[in-house]
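Thread: Newbie trying to understand structure tokens

Hi all, I'm a second-year student working on a class project, and my supervisor (Dr. K.) asked me to get a predicted structure for one chain before our next meeting. I've only ever worked with sequences, so writing a 3D structure as a token string is new to me. If someone could post the tokens and maybe explain what I'm looking at, I'd be very grateful. Here's the chain:
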Amino acid sequence: MKTLTIIGLGAGDFNQLQMGVYRKLKAAKKLYVRTIDHPVLEELAAEGVKFESFDKVYEKHDAFQPVYAEIADALIEAAAVEDIMYAVPGHPLVAEQTVQLLIAAADEGKIKLVIEGGQSFIDPIFGALKIDPIEGFQLLDGTRFSMHDINMRQHILIAQVYDTFSASEVKLTLMEKYDDEYPVTVVTAAGSAQEQIVTVPLYELDQSVEVNNLTTVYVPPVKSQEEALKDWTTFRQIIATLRGPNGCPWDQKQTHESLKKYLLEEAHEYLAAIDAEDDFAMIEELGDVLLQVFLHAQIGEDEGYFTLEDVLASISEKMIRRHPHVFGDVAVEDADDVVANWEAIKAEEKGTSNKPLLDEEYRASSALQTAYNYQKRAAKVGFDWPDVDGAWDKFDEEWQEFRQEVTKGSNASRLDEFGDVLFTLVNLARFYKLSPEEAMLHANEKFARRFGYVEEQVKISGKSFSNFTLEQLDAFWNEAKQLEKE
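---
Reply by user tm_fold:
Sure, no problem. This is what the structure looks like when written as tokens:
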């Protein structure tokens, strides 16, 4: 088996090329280069060094992965015949996908691989920008990073920004977290005689700066919380500060128990925003729900019982475990199969228990939700009507019994029978896949909205409610209904 040697051309011009690397390049019998677009190669060619580039491969594909794969395959094929050398920009082990593919091939025994030195672009970049990497930095690939990869509190270096299109893609990704005016620095040919450093507002990244394959984009760390409002760490720090020694007295005294009503209230307000199809309200209300989650997690951390990481680990592990058709090798045909799998896995997790089936279904915050949970749990073990007709018949029966108690019963019997009516209505909601809790919230919100209109008309008249008949007030109500339709 012949040897494939990979060597780095360095990050700059010929004067920066290491002497040992230079000698090995001169001595190479068969030399391949990923791209001819590197300042060192022009000097080597002038000295008579022969090499073959893969620039034509780039022209064949619209994406980089197939380019890198084809280059790696070509090198493996060539190395089967003779010893070859493959030269790449910078250092072979820094931001070189073709090298990673070749390492994988070597691990599989397909080639004999030797990796030589070469100066990466990182050291000259640090020197040009005068930053200390001990403060924390990220090196990201401009062709495939996302906003979720970004740590806004570290120095960020983005490589593989070589043309206007790639610069535009990097700009759009950064704009998902940073302000349009946030300063970014474009460094080209760092440490060489051709070094260029230009700082521009983020929105100009792909407009006023020339980039090439020696370009790196630098994004400095944020200096304030206001610059990182889209970062999860910022919100967590805000909550920790509010609960901290110099924080807010109200937040400091909250407990899991005291916050229960607020979580329920915020969830209801978010549901109302969904019903209103108001995206801006959904953003605000979902933020309020998130506030409750972070507050509970911070209380858990303050008391030493659990942290936000514990919460994330628990739900992440559960989602993976209960979706074997996505993260495993289980096959499903439709959503019904998914639900069946979910319930089977859930039952297996809980194991055999002597506890009553309905024990975990009680909800102190909502009698409607408790009724729904009870019926749903009983239905899972077969205690249910075969179809909705049975539920309708039961409702008619309970309604008649309630009517009879209204006529001749006591207050206690009326209360009992009315509860049965409500229970059968919840059952009907379940058959029609409706949430009784959500339906009640919607009805309450609708009543409040329409009654608000009635109240407004009374105020406009300059009179009081007592000056209007029920028929007149009902007319205002009907006007509110009509306005909603319009």
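A couple of things are worth pointing out once you decode it. The longest strand covers residues 3-8. Strands lie at 3-8, 31-33, 52-53, 84-88, 112-115, 137-141, 155-159, 183-188, 196-201, 215-219. Feel free to ask follow-ups in this thread.
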